[in-house]
Design a protein that fits this description.
It is a single chain. A hairpin with a 6-residue loop joins strand 18 (350-365) and strand 19. By secondary structure, the protein is mainly beta. It has strands at residues 5-11, 33-36, 91-94, 105-109, 115-120, 122-132, 142-156, 159-176, 197-207, 215-227, 237-250, 253-261, 269-277, 283-289, 293-301, 304-323, 326-345, 350-365, 372-373, 378-386. It contains no helices and 20 strands. The chain has a single domain (5-386), classed as Porin, CATH 2.40.160. Strands 6-7-8-9-10-11-12-13-14-15-16-17-18-20 form a 14-stranded antiparallel β-barrel. A three-stranded antiparallel β-sheet has the order 1-5-4, with no helix packed on it. The protein is globular, with a radius of gyration of 22 Å. It starts with a strand and ends with a strand.
């Protein structure tokens, strides 16, 4: 056993059979994100990677897993278990990379026929860039956002199947517009002047307990600093959270109910929930507010799977800023509809590319100078990769 891994007791390999009722405890679905303005900013980077068959041994060749949607325990080749494939819907965290749960466990077959399971310490590393178009004029608001994050798995009470996921991340936000006069004439309102750069630096904790076959949970807490680093105060430190119960009504359908805490100026708490339905191997339908995502498998080319998707997102964030001598806190909120493609290789490298329409945009100012401004609607392009 090398560094960075955790060993679990030997297990007898499961040989297939009918899937159990309820969600298979191979790992929870991706983190549901509502506090993020992007994939890194709030959208999942792609489908979770397939897990290795439980009967895998170092000398045996790796055989590709069934298409997404297959359930663990479904009939298949002797000694293998098709990987459970959850969709890559956006997490609740619109302020940061929505890293979802990955099946980071693997195993080696011992001489006694049992299996020793291990859990990877470093689960995923990802990068993503989001561009919201704009010319930087009085009614335009352009955003370029670059985010980096990594996810680590730490066993909870020696359980490698549902580890605590720790995700540190950092994001740079370059702003263009809206243009406003920071020193207006007497009696005129101050314009919506903003700094050129904003930063997110956070640590996210996620846990997906599965106490019963028919019931699990998605729990998360994120804290950090959101600021331009010219104005840093207690308001720069935010605490975001999520809590959803997941009820398995069948092996193909789950009902999610809960709330997300966004800690913004206007929107503090949002209800969250809906239905996650996988009717067959090619469809993955995540009808969950506030970040729904509907995926359709296009085809497999070699060892790469391709998916097409339509998704929605509540984007934005909140930062403390210095506006030409005025310390303030701002919120940026918008709604997004996206079309995209995502892919995943057999080496577990995943990527996505999407275009979208951004509307219902607003910037709120805690100082009320001005109270708010409404940038023009715009288009969005986002791309990312993780491995």
């Amino acid at each position: 056993m090398g560094p960075g891994t955790f060993a679990a007791p030997s297990l007898t390999p499961f040989q297939g059979g009918a899937p159990p009722f309820g969600r298979v405890p191979i790992g929870p679905p991706p983190a549901f994100d509502a506090y993020a303005p992007g994939t890194v900013s709030g959208t999942a980077v792609g489908p979770p990677p397939p897990s290795l068959p439980y009967s895998y041994t170092p000398s045996a060749p790796f055989s590709p897993q069934p298409a997404a949607g297959a359930w663990q325990g479904a009939p298949g080749a002797p000694g293998t278990i098709p990987a459970t494939r959850f969709p890559a819907e956006r997490g609740i965290f619109t302020d940061g990379l929505p890293f979802d749960w990955q099946q980071g466990a693997y195993g080696y077959q011992g001489s006694d026929g049992g299996l020793v399971r291990f859990q990877k310490f470093l689960q995923r590393v990802g990068v993503e860039h989001t561009w919201l178009a704009g010319s930087g004029g009085t009614e335009d608001f352009e955003v370029n956002r670059l985010e980096l994050a990594a996810t680590f798995g730490i066993p909870v009470m020696h359980n490698i199947e549902t580890p605590l996921l720790v995700t540190p991340g950092i994001a740079w936000n370059w702003l263009g517009g809206p243009i406003g006069d920071p020193m207006p004439p007497m009696m005129d309102p101050r314009g919506p002047d903003l700094p050129g750069q904003l930063y997110d630096a956070y640590v996210d904790l996620s846990w997906y307990p599965q106490p019963f076959e028919w019931f699990g949970a998605e729990l998360g807490l994120r804290t950090g600093v959101w600021t331009d680093f010219d104005s840093v105060s207690s308001d720069s430190v935010r605490i975001l959270g999520r809590g959803l119960g997941v009820i398995s009504v069948s092996p193909q359908m789950e009902v999610l109910v809960g709330v997300v805490y966004l800690d913004r100026l206007r929107v503090k708490l949002l209800p969250a929930g809906g239905i996650h339905w996988r009717p067959d191997l090619d469809w993955d339908l995540y009808f969950v507010f506030p970040n729904p995502k509907l995926r359709r498998r296009i085809q497999s080319v070699g060892n790469t799977e391709w998916w097409f998707y339509v998704s929605g997102e509540y984007g934005g964030g909140s930062w403390t800023v210095n506006r030409a001598g005025l310390d303030d806190r701002i919120d940026y909120n918008d709604l997004r509809v996206m079309l995209g493609v995502e892919w995943e290789t057999s080496t577990l490298v995943r990527g996505h590319l999407e275009v979208g329409y951004v509307f219902d945009r607003e910037i709120l100012f805690d100082s009320a100078m001005p109270i708010s401004t409404t940038p023009d609607e715009t288009v969005m392009v986002r791309a990312g990769v993780d491995f």
